[in-house]
Design a protein that fits this description.
The structure is a homodimer. Chain A has helices spanning about 5-15, 25-30, 50-65, 115-125, 140-150, 155-160, 195, 230-245, 255-265, 290-300, 315-325, 325-335, 355-370, 395-415, 430-455, and strands at about 20, 45, 70, 90, 100, 105-110, 130, 165-170, 175-180, 205-215, 215, 220-230, 250-255, 275-285, 305-310, 345, 350, 375-380, 385-395. In chain A, strands 12, 13, 14, 15, 16, 17, 18 and 19 form an eight-stranded antiparallel β-sheet that branches. Chain A folds into three domains: about 5-90, Uridine Diphospho-n-acetylenolpyruvylglucosamine Reductase, domain 2 (2-Layer Sandwich); about 100-215, Uridine Diphospho-n-acetylenolpyruvylglucosamine Reductase, domain 3, CATH 3.30.465.10; about 220-415, 3-Layer(aba) Sandwich (Vanillyl-alcohol Oxidase, Chain A, domain 3). Chain A is of the alpha+beta class and about 475 residues long. Chain A is built from 15 helices and 19 strands. In chain A, strand 18 and strand 19 form a beta hairpin. Chain A is globular. The longest helix of chain A is centred in the last third of the chain and has 23 residues, at about 430-455. In chain A, helix 8 (about 230-245) packs across helix 10 (about 290-300) and helix 8 runs antiparallel to helix 13 (about 355-370). In chain A, about 35% of the residues lie in helices and about 20% in strands. Chains A and B meet through strand 9, helix 7, strand 11, helix 8 and helix 15 of A and strand 9, helix 7, strand 11, helix 8 and helix 15 of B.
């Protein structure tokens, strides 16, 4: 066993089996799924089973002046879960209990290591629904979803993770246990500490329990596909849909690069000759057919070549599945674009006001040309939240530099259009500079003041966010 | 003109007309609508017109070490806007511009002094809807709504104020101007400072601009009335409605005291022999009639004596109007209950998980008997958020003491049932002790640390919240 006085203290607190120092395992806990981010090798990975054990770990680490990096499933896309050299990685993998599901109050109480899909399935048995559905939902954890305020495809109508978090239990840098929020539908008792911790990427505390709000199981939906001659016309259709007062429950955009990547990854008859495809759904109800007709009308007026409704639930599910494959399909496409499988993706996550989406899409095309990098665009069009995926050759510094430049240009454009540098992936390491530009010097000072108030020694996930 | 070096500085910054020291006017700015709360006489009331003027006021006050108390329309019910002796009251009354309405991005940007109803009407012209509708919506301001995170009747389906605040401009204690949030539908750039300021009751900064999200104008709705033999059976019906997965757009409870008070205040043929009445609405759509039938079924199964649907929109509007009259009607009822019009109301605001509502209502009846005070109950049943209104004789210390005891007993019960001491009115002065009990010593320390980080001299709305 590795020798370090910290390790002895951790073993005393958690038992040997929960304190891991195997080099391969440490290497496997160095980083999340973001490219272009630094990472380090942790000294140790611990797997606490409950809040008291997490508190013990934080107290031990504080005593030794060692940083603490919380990790869920490491599916993040901004490097927020990346380890630093010599850190204690707190893995929530052993804290995966769904503690309570209350169908009358429509809440669930879970440990942070519960996988999103596991929670979704557990509440479904009670006729309930946990809407937030990030792309990683089959593997990412609720703790990670909360720490990054994860989005997903349902957000356009049903909102992001933060809108479902009623209360938290958090281990602070001091090792104290804080409970925030409530179990009630409404509540305004004191500062909204719950929302302060949601999206704070492990820099203010380690989340040990989450109380979430649930909805009744969703209605069936009708699905529409619209094929566009350019991505900008698809963007125009999104603005038109908002302007007409329509509220689709899903409104996703895929460009040709993504359609081809998906079709290669798993052939399913997608229109790979289309420049852009909008995928929309509306919840059923009296107005569903009417809403669908109005969506189709707007798409046609915006320049769609072809508009058709899914004929049945099977076709609709297949279309949704195609959209869900965008990320792995593009990863494979990128890998295969360069010799030796060295291709990689730099994933942007810019969000603009819906009315500016067409300008953003036009601009991304210009940036791809100017920087001489392939950029595929996919994303949550209804939210104005796009993921321009920049394809780079990891083995070629010049390609990486061009990709980095395109990445920065896209964020600059996003801010110019009144947008944000991150719609749902978070700041992590990847966008620290851009956060500072977006929130300005006063915003940075307020962030620093809050961080210093809650983590004066700066041991919680150091280097992230700002 | 009153002489104080501070006043000269304020006049230099704002001009004489915006710096008010008339004693009657000062007296009129001492307090909001909450009973049982201390207040003081401000040294001066200022009416800045823009952000720069607010920043100038805060800097002048800081230089002189004088507290700053922000005020909107003073319709609050927790004393959060009450002045302290010698303070500078910053009235937002002259900052009432709707700066922007963007129908495509579905946002509006407003100054804090805009009245809720004025915003609602302005966006309605664009086919849009600003849902938060506190009881005071015809007079309360968006700044005050944001500072207290105001609720309302639509919350059961459409959420409270915080869910509509995308971004803020805030003057900090330092006089610096902070911009938080965004104009986009989604965004996770940095800590959620927007939500930290929402509901912070003027203790962390003075809100000078608000960017709100809007919805398409709402659908028509169908309205149902259910008459119950006891308030607890009405509470049982609310649990049953949640359990059946129904999502009414309105679900309000009125007890007999309120029905009689309203009928006396404005006769409209309400069933004053009923012990409790539930008022429910569902948005129209394919399932509306079906949903209404299921609501009726649940109410009947829970023991309702009579259940009927509003025959038309006029009847539905009248019922809603009756509910909106509950507060003024109860105030008059209370005033007239004691000689000399000395009767007053102590307004509780407890929220419990929906499944515990019947227990809360039962408990309130027991407390009324034990404390020998009349208590009328009204509130947002669908959210589990009740306003037990305690009738006291302001001229009789014994009556006030009994009322205060009942008030405390109700909050104690609310916390025991897993609830919160304030569902929507806020902490202010009225519930400081109960906030501390609810959030515990660690929670209080975190509140204090954040307050100290943002307002080290403690000059912003001192004495409020904690």
């Amino acid at each position: 066993m590795a020798a370090h006085p910290l390790l002895d203290d951790l073993r005393a607190a958690l038992g040997d089996a929960a304190v891991l120092t195997d080099p391969d395992l440490l290497a496997g806990h160095e980083r999340d799924e973001a490219d272009l981010c630094d990472s380090g090798t942790p000294l140790v990975v611990v797997r606490p089973r409950d809040t008291e054990e997490v508190a013990a770990v934080v107290r031990v680490a504080a005593r030794h002046g060692v940083p603490v990096v919380p990790q869920g499933a490491r599916t993040g896309l901004a490097g927020a879960a990346n380890a630093v050299d010599g850190a204690v990685v707190v893995s929530t993998v052993a804290m995966d209990a769904v503690r309570e599901i209350d169908p009358v109050s429509r809440i669930a109480v879970v440990q942070p290591g519960v996988v999103n899909a596991a929670l979704a399935r557990a509440v479904r048995e009670h006729g309930l629904w946990y809407p937030p559905d990030p792309g990683s939902w089959e593997s990412s954890t609720i703790g990670g979803n909360v720490a990054t305020n994860a989005g997903g495809m349902c957000c356009v109508k049903y909102g992001v993770t933060s809108e479902y978090v009623l209360g938290l239990e958090v281990v602070l840098a001091s090792g104290e246990v804080l409970r925030t929020g409530r179990r009630t539908a409404k509540g305004v008792a004191g500062y909204d500490l719950t929302r302060l911790f949601v999206g704070s990427e492990g820099t203010l505390g380690v989340i040990t329990e989450v109380t979430v709000a649930l909805r009744p199981a969703p209605e069936e939906s009708l699905t529409l596909v619209a094929v566009f001659p350019t991505v900008a016309t698809a963007g125009g259709a999104v603005a038109g849909i908002a302007e007409r007062g329509l509220t689709p429950s899903l409104l996703e955009l895929l460009d040709r690069t993504h359609l081809r990547a998906i079709e290669t990854y798993r052939p399913m008859g997608l229109r790979t000759d289309a420049e852009a495809l909008l995928l929309a759904a509306v919840d059923t109800g009296a107005r569903a057919a009417d809403d669908l007709a109005r969506l189709a009308e707007v798409c046609t007026a915006a320049g769609a070549d072809e508009v058709y409704a899914a004929t049945d639930a099977t076709e609709a599910a297949a279309l949704l599945q195609a959209r869900r494959l965008a990320h792995p399909a593009m990863e494979r496409f990128a890998a295969e674009t360069f010799p030796g499988g060295n291709g990689g993706l730099v994933i942007d996550d810019v969000a603009v006001p819906r009315g500016r989406l067409a300008e953003l899409l036009d601009g991304v095309a210009r940036i791809a040309e100017a920087c001489r990098v392939p950029i595929g665009v996919v994303g949550h069009a209804g939210d104005g939240n796009m993921h321009p995926n920049i394809v780079v050759d990891r083995a070629d510094p010049a390609s990486l530099a061009r990709g980095r430049r395109a990445f920065d240009e896209i964020m600059r454009l996003g801010l110019e259009l009144g947008g944000t540098c991150t719609g749902e992936h978070g700041v992590g390491l990847l966008k620290r500079d851009w956060l500072a530009r977006e929130i300005g010097p006063v915003g940075v000072r307020v962030h620093q003041a809050i961080k210093a108030a809650l983590d004066p020694a700066g041991l919680l996930n150091p280097g992230k966010v700002f």
